[in-house]
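As a warm-up, study this chain.
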Amino acid sequence: MFSEPGIIYGMLCCWLFLSFSVRVEAQHIPLRNPSLEGPAGKGILPDPWYVAAGTPDTQPGVFGIKLLPSAGKSYVGLHSGKGFLEGIGQELPLAMSAHMDYVLSFDLAYTSYYLYPACYGNLAIYGGNAPGDTAELLWSSGNFTHESWERYDAVLRPSGAYRYLSFIAYPTTPCNKSQYGIALLIDNLSALDRLELPVVTAVAQPCSCGEVTDGSITAHVTGGVSPFQYRLDNGRWQADSVFTALAAGQHFVEIQDSHRFTARVMAKVESPWKNCLVVMPTAFSPNNDGQNDVFRPKVYDAIHDYRLRVYDRWGQLIFSGAVPENGWDGTFKGSPAAVQAYVYICTYTDSRQQSHVLKGTVMLLR
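Now compare it with the structure written out below.
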């Protein structure tokens, strides 16, 4: 049918690209309107959510439900009992991959009265092939009675390539208060992400000296789902992966991904120099051999207000710098400086806020 090899090759490449794209995208399946935004009302749902069972309601305000949303301005309430179930559902933009582990996060709360007295909440998540289809139970929260929002992270492993998810208030045990005694509220759903546990490594920078707390640690994460949070030594979570102003010693680094999966690692900040000091070399050889090519101080302290000036034997200023790492490369006005002794003056303030002036000579060798 196709006589041109180029056409066949192009179609094959296109097919491989589409197959790869679908496979990658199926690892992250977004839900539409995940915070369930819509006008509150009895028996109505925000678009594009549909009724999977019963008559779910958009809250707050219906049947006296007053809990504020955990995200946005609205959420959904469900209540069920023997012979009567309520649930919501959504068609996914991509089918879930069979036998792949996914994680889905959301907020749940129980309410003790939802038109009828209630005993507990329990959410069941089903995968199916049509709206309201409960072909496979993928996850259940278990009974809960917390009346404030709590975050849940459901791990789903479908046996089929389901395109529909249903979220149903499901009775597990009878309620002695009413026949419709299972009541729950749901809000703030995440995307369906492939479950890939995060792994953290850390790189530590040493302290300048034993008396200074200027070490740092940078955390690096592979796996997991961004955005990540970071904390050090069980402190407060932060969005920045870098921790500064650290003392020498062992530190405990922890990260948390968007589904609250965590990883931990120990990192040690060294302090190779016990005494805090600044040492000026007596000679250097700017011959580009990678050794002693630049005249600059060896700094074993956390210094500031630094200034280095270099003069020739006639008092002419040859070099001036304000950054310890950027020293003199042995040139003057773009040309190699003469082989001779030069006078330097180095001023700085140390970590104890004491001012220093170092004066001496340095020999330029070639």
